[in-house]
Design goal:
homodimer, alpha/beta, 434 Repressor (Amino-terminal Domain), Rossmann fold, 6-stranded parallel sheet, 6-stranded mixed sheet, 12 strands, 15% strand, elongated
């Protein structure tokens, strides 16, 4: 009763191997042939046994996604985009949420190898670069997303963190702010390091050195935001502007500002890094550095599929070289939380 | 060079079939035996070929999760909890985001069958109950989460929507409100229907009929929230309280209240349904009906694994009967957005 691959090939007027290539998601087939085979398969109700065909073709049509959490808006946007784009190309996503726990990440990487994934997209903790290299060495394409730990292998699709930080600080400087505070992530994480260096660079370009009393760098947690605001606003000369670059701390940062009764932007201008769907509705609407999470997801998929299919990239270079670094631009979205100091 | 199952069994002092059962995730093994086998496998660096073993055992160790989106806080909390709990039990999650599109959902169900998933958790659109029944009929356990479309098969783990709505309205009535407005989802979706019926029931118990001018039922979209607030607040006798039961519309609802300059709670008390991590930090902090997303995820996993392992449930009943309905309690979290009418 089950329809065979032979029947699909005959109905489509192609060889069995061509039909097989189309149905296994290979891109090395003309669009016309692809359509003919897919429509024949659909008409006949053909259902491949992916487990068995996985053994033959060594393709599982599974992609591993190792990611920090889904609460952060950038991460859940990336996960949605990635899953839907991969699905359109015939791949399903094995979701692995690490909570930044290196032991858990290690276990996931092991499991993904067991499941013979065809590719891996990872927002890495940076503690398991040896295993990520093993995955690469096993011939499985790897895209490092948003974080490029030292010694990692594979391609990197990175946010424009430094550039975004510069945009935020230049915006504040342009309004006349000089006492600009910074709440950021830890120096061990790319976004923590790069946003801080953008902050320092933009200040330096205006002839300003950061005031140590106005800088807070620490973990991606809500309490860190709360504590930092309490400390910064208690400084002998409090800031007139705050660049909040630690997204996970933002709930704490905003909560503490409300608790202290700080009026934004009258008393303190505020720029947050990474967009969230409720920022436009805050009182006042929050000026943000949008890190283009959607584009980060799209480009990670594109680069991964290019490696899987061994296609040359847009520049014409074959991708079988060392890892490529792709940076996605950030942009500033000005809303009501920033104004000239009074 | 590769370590074989025989070697693991020998090192653990058990038979090959026992070792196999442990490593394939079966629960029918004593805890002591499980530990012995797992520690031997780890010590020796054993890596099962899950694709090949999937063919032999007919287990893929994959679970399909079909869900509406990841932007809604309930959905991303559920996805995180479900993935991490299943991982602890040896299963990986194939994530499928539908955006409420029935055609996409249909394609996902097809693909999940191709991948021979061992189970399915679905927040269904309600348009593909025939296919969900086919999945069940193929012997794959199904848990319907948050939505139980008519004619669906499998177990259902549902939120306490009606009960939660009653809690919200009773809270407002208890403060002295009588003109209570409602913004909810469409009647075709469980949460839209059940929250409205709880709203009506709680009002009825206080001898009040809902004012049609104060009721808005419509799609789970941001613009619907904006439009509804504009209409409700323009009523000849505007409400003194609003129960916002349409979570996706909430961004629009809050934005419109800010835009109109409505003071909460002085001018309008507000209760929102479904918790979000930023609600405690809104001005004022928002009173919510928490639908216990974490518990919904946990219970869905528990029920699914029970079916996969064919274990009796806590009440001692074998689970090979018709689908079970499990309801997760809602609770009211009172914050600063509700007060007595002035």
């Amino acid at each position: 009763m089950a329809v065979t691959l032979d029947e699909v090939a005959e109905a489509a007027g192609v060889s069995k191997s061509t039909a097989s290539r189309v149905l296994s998601g290979s891109s090395r087939v003309s669009a016309q042939t692809r359509r003919a085979v897919q429509s024949a398969a659909e008409r006949l109700g053909y259902r491949p046994n992916r487990v068995a065909s996985g053994l033959r073709t060594r393709r599982s049509n599974l992609i591993g996604l190792v990611i920090t959490n889904l609460v952060n808006a950038s991460f859940h946007v990336i996960t949605e985009v990635l899953q839907q784009r991969l699905d359109e190309c015939g791949y399903q996503v094995l979701l692995c949420v690490t909570d930044s726990d290196p032991a858990r990440e290690r276990r996931y990487l092991d499991t993904l190898l067991d499941h013979r994934v065809d590719g891996l997209v990872i927002v890495g903790t940076g503690e398991n670069t040896d295993m990520v290299r093993q995955v690469s060495a096993a011939g499985i394409p790897v895209v490092n997303l948003m974080r490029a730990p030292v010694g990692v292998s594979g391609d990197c699709v990175m946010a424009g963190d430094r550039e975004g930080a510069e945009l935020a600080v230049q915006h504040l400087l342009g309004m006349g702010h000089r006492r600009i505070a910074f709440i950021g992530g830890p120096p061990e994480v790319d976004s923590g390091r790069d946003r801080y260096s953008g902050f320092v660079a933009a200040l330096a370009a205006a002839g300003i050195e950061p005031y140590p009393a106005l800088v807070a760098r620490g973990p991606y947690t809500v309490p860190f935001g709360t504590e930092s605001v309490m400390r910064l606003m208690a400084a002998a000369h409090p800031p007139t502007a705050l660049y909040s670059a630690n997204h996970e701390a933002t709930f704490g940062t905003l909560g503490a500002l409300v608790q202290l009764g700080v009026r934004v932007p009258e008393q303190l201008s505020l720029v947050c890094h990474e967009e969230a769907p409720w920022f436009p509705y805050w009182h006042p609407p929050i000026t943000v550095v949008d890190n283009s999470a959607r584009d980060l997801g799209e480009l990670a998929v594109e680069q991964l599929l290019r490696r899987i299919d061994n296609r040359p990239d847009d520049a014409g270079a074959a991708p079988d070289d060392a890892g490529r670094l792709i940076r996605v631009g950030s942009r500033l979205v000005v809303r009501g939380s920033t104004a000239a100091p009074r």
